[in-house]
UniProtKB/TrEMBL annotation:
Top-level taxon of the source organism: Bacteria
Family: Belongs to the LysR transcriptional regulatory family.
Name this polypeptide is given: LysR family transcriptional regulator
Record keywords: DNA-binding, Transcription, Transcription regulation
Organism, as annotated: Streptomyces aurantiacus
Length: 320
């Protein structure tokens, strides 16, 4: 039994005449009569009474037609849903991100994605760079925003593009002697109690700051380690010390805090958008389209990376 058999039966019930139903369906009457007869044999019951006044559903026909209408409605709905899914209008997108990406660029990107793709289910996971890289490689995430390019096993299979550039800045209380200054020097920082973020996802008590301030810097040895950049800003505004963090902290001003540049200017690792090269799900493609619209320079770099990956994949297939 095929969907056309259901349509034929419904058309016959509507027009109550083989000729008129055949005309509405755009087929000849004999094939229609044969298809209805074949359908009745398959169902095992007479679906229509043929009378001089017309062709009318039997009790079995009424029961069959009610289900047939629902079945065809479901088929039509399935076609619509398949099209929406293929266009990235439904589905699921799993995004891993470091906390500071919520300052820039995620707010505008997520807001626009939510407005343009309201029926895509967003699963958002705040996680460290190493964890999100492993999750991407394992297929547990669709896309991630990390500090620096992903490293480790499987990272070479990811497509990565910078989505934000940062440099080191300082934040102090408005009551601090440095408040009102446009910048502070590295020498000045060496004399202050510092507040830094932990671990791998922000400027840290690690190689970067040790190289900047000195391997045995007392300021680093006694630094307060904050959970994230929001805590850095809060502690600095409370007068605990001088907070150090990425320039995207400027997107999170708060009363009592003063931001100033650090001289010499010290670049920090980029924010990087990554996804698995083989994953071109419609929901991910829709998200990448939002990135292109919202960040044209990022979109150009993304298209370049995707093009390079496709060329490399084609070469690998040719060599195999």
């Amino acid at each position: 039994m095929e969907a056309r058999h259901l349509r034929y039966a419904l058309a016959l019930a509507e027009h109550e005449h083989f000729g008129r139903a055949a005309g509405a369906l755009g087929i000849a009457q004999p094939p229609l009569s044969k298809q209805i007869a074949d359908l009745e044999r398959e169902v095992g019951a007479r679906l229509f009474d043929r009378t001089r006044q017309g062709v009318f559903p039997t009790a079995a026909g009424d029961a069959f037609l009610a289900r047939a209408r629902r079945a065809l409605d479901e088929v039509a709905a399935a076609v619509v849903e398949a099209g929406r899914a293929a266009r990235g209008e439904t589905g699921r997108l799993r995004l891993g991100f470091i906390a500071s990406a919520l300052l820039e660029p995620l707010p505008t990107v997520l807001g626009r994605f939510g407005r343009e793709r309201p029926d895509v289910r967003l699963e958002l996971h705040e996680m460290a760079t190493s964890r999100s890289t492993a999750a991407l490689v394992a297929g547990e995430l669709d896309v991630a925003i990390t500090l620096g390019r992903p490293r480790g096993a499987g990272a070479e299979r990811l497509v990565s593009v910078p989505v934000g550039h940062d440099h080191l800045i300082a934040v102090v209380s408005t009551a601090h002697p440095y408040a009102g200054q446009p910048s502070v020097s590295v020498d000045q920082l060496r004399q202050q109690p510092l507040i830094v973020a932990p671990g791998e996802d922000e400027p840290v008590v690690g190689a970067g700051l040790r190289a900047l301030l000195g391997e045995d810097s007392p300021a680093l040895g006694g630094a307060t380690v904050a959970r994230d950049i929001h805590t850095i800003i809060g502690l600095a505004a409370s007068g605990v010390g001088v907070g150090l963090g990425p320039s995207r902290m400027l997107a999170a001003p708060r009363p009592g805090a003063w931001f100033c540049e650090v001289t010499p200017r010290t670049p920090l690792p980029d924010l990087v958008l990554s996804f698995t090269a083989r994953d071109r799900s419609p929901a991910l493609s829709a998200f990448l389209d939002i990135i292109r619209k919202n960040c044209p320079d990022v979109g150009a770099a993304l298209d370049h990376r995707l093009g390079a990956h496709c060329e490399q994949r084609g070469q690998d297939l040719a060599d195999s």
